[in-house]
Amino acid sequence: MSHYAFVSTPVLNIAYLEWNPRGRQVAVLVHGWPDGPESWSAVAEHLVATGYRVLCPTLRGFGQTRFIDPLTPRSGQLAALGRDLLDFIDALRLDQPVLVGHDWGARAVANACGLRHHAAARLVMLSVGYGSNDPSQQISLIQARNYWYHWYMATPRGERTLVEDRVAFTRLLWDTWSPAGWYAEAAFAQAAEAFDNPDWAAVVLHSYRHRWGFVEGDPAYVQDEALLQPTPVLAVPTLVLHGEADTCNAPDSSAGRESFFSGAYHRRLLPGVGHFPQREAPDAVADAILTFCQGV
Question: What pLDDT is attached to residue 217?
Fold first, then answer.
C-alpha cells in the first residue's frame, strides 16, 4: 500500500497517495463522495503493473487535505474541484496526465479539462455524465428521486444528520447505490476515516446546495464558473464508464452527451455494477482504462 505524501497549492495542502514515482506515464485518479483515495488501490495496482506512475489526491474537505488559510470559504462548488486539480497538477509539474475521476472526482477531472484545454492526455469519468453543472439542467423524475440526498442536505434536518450522524448517513448511501452485499466492512470503515476532516460537512453541504443554486459560490471562482457555463466542448479523448446497476446516477443520465466532445468519445456500461465501479469491478475498470489509453 502506498503512503500519503503532501503538496501545497495556493489554497490547499493536499494529501495524496502515490505508486511507482518513476513511471513513464502518469495517471491521476480522483475519488468521489462519499469515499476516499483508497478506493482506487486495486485499479492503481493494475496501472502500475503496466508502467504507470499513479497519484490519488484527496479532495478538499476530505482526509488529511487541509485549507491553508482559515478564512478561505469552505466551498464545495464544482468549479473549485476542477481548479484544485489543476493546482495539484501544477504543483507536481505533471505534463498532461491521464485524468480519471469517480463521482465528485469525475466532475473534477472534466472541469479541469474545461478550464484548461490541454490539461490531460486522456479523460475517464466513472458514474457521471458530463455537462451537469447547471442548476436548471433537465433531469428525469427517476433521477430526481435518486437525488433525494441532495435536497435533504439543503434542509436544517439534513445538515444536522450530516454533521452529527455522518457515518450512518453515508453507510445508507453505500447500501443503496449498488447491489446488496457489494462491500466489506473494512472498506467502508477506511473510507469513513476521510469524513473526519473538520471541513468535511461544510464542504459537502456547500457543494450540494451550490449546484442547485441554493447558496452563492466563493467569489474566487467567478471566472472559472464563467468558463464552465455554458458547458464547454472538450477535445480530449474521453471514456465514460457507468454501472448498469447504479441507483445514484441512473445509467441513462450519462447517455446522449456526444455533442459535448469534439475528440474521440466512448461510453461503456458495466453489467451488474453499481455506483462504485473502481471498488466493485476494479479489474474491468483498469482493463477499460488501459485499453482506452492504448487506442486512438
Answer: 96
